[in-house]
Amino acid sequence: MTLILGDIRIDRIEESREPGNLPHEDFPDATPEAIAPYLEWLEPAAIDPASGRTIMPVQTYLVRTAHRTILLDTCVGNHKNHPSTPAWNRRSDYTLIEDIAAAGVAPEDVDLVLCSHLHLDHAGWNTRLEDGRWTPTFPNARYLFNRDELDFAEEQARQGDSVYGESVQPVLEAGLGEMVAKDFALDDNVWLEPTEGHTPGHVATWLGSGGGRAVMCGDLIHAPFQLPHPEWSPVYDWDRAMAAATRRRFLESVADTDIFVLTQHFPAPSMGHVFGKGGGFGFRYHGRDMVHG
Length: 293
Ligand SMILES: [Zn+2]
Description:
The chain is of the alpha+beta class. The protein is 21% helix and 25% strand. Strands 1-2-3-4-5-8-9 form a seven-stranded mixed beta sheet. The chain has a seven-stranded mixed beta sheet with strand order 10-11-12-13-14-15-16, with no helix packed on it. The longest helix is centred in the C-terminal third of the chain and has 15 residues, at 240-254. The chain is globular and about 50 Å long. The protein starts with a strand and ends with a strand. The structure holds zinc ion. Zinc ion is lined by residues 119, 121-122, 219, 264-265. The site of zinc ion has 6 residues, from helix 5.
C-alpha cells in the first residue's frame, strides 16, 4: 500500500500479522465486558472473531523523499533472541527485506533509519547475523538515536533484554549511529516530535511535502480500541499514565485534520485519519470504507 504526499512516497511493508494475546492480557482495562460494545467494528481486522485475540501487524514504512530513502522502524528481524515473545524469537524469513527490494530498494540504498523506540519489533532489522556477528543490515545508512532511548535500552539490557546488544550496539560500533534531539528536524520534509510514555525516548516522525502532512506514531497507540479509550495503556508502556496523556494529546492534535496518521500496529492498511476531536476518537482508513469508531 502506497501513499503519495507531495514529493514523498510512503510504502507500508508488513513483516507479520498473527493474532496475539487477548485484549485484556495486554490492556488490563480492555476486559471482555469493556470491549464488547466495540467488537462490531473491531472484528475481523483488529480482533480475530474465532479466538478473540488482538491482531497487530508488525511493519515498516519505507519513505522516499526527493533526497533520501528512509526506513521508519525496522520490525523484528531474524535470529533475534526474544523467548518472552515466541513469535519474535529467532525468526528466519526474509520477506521484509524481499518486499522492500520488490519496492525498488536494496539494503545499500537506505540512507536513513529512524526507530520510534528501541523495542524489538521496531529495531530488529537494524542488524542481521552474518558469519556469527551482528552486522548493520543497511550499511550505508545513518541510524538516528536519542540519548534517553539509548539509556533506556541499555538499562533494559542490564535486566536481560537482548535488543541493545543485538540490534543497537553493533550499529554504534560500526560508526553508523548518530545522536539527535527528540525534536530533531532533518529538513523541511522530515522531523521528529517527542512522544514519551511508551518508552522514555519515544518519538513520532512527521513527514511533510506539498502542503500534505503525515505522522508515523510508533507505539504511542497500539490498537484501535484505544481511540475511544486513550486511557487504556498496555502493560508494556513504560509509564502508563504518561503514555495515556501523550496519546490523548496526540489524538487531539491530529483529529479532524487532513494529517495522515501512519500507525504501527493497526490492521492494514494501517494509515488513515483520526476524527472525533474532544474525545470518543475514531479512525477512517485510507482508501477503504473501514471506519473504526
Ligand atoms: Zn510495537
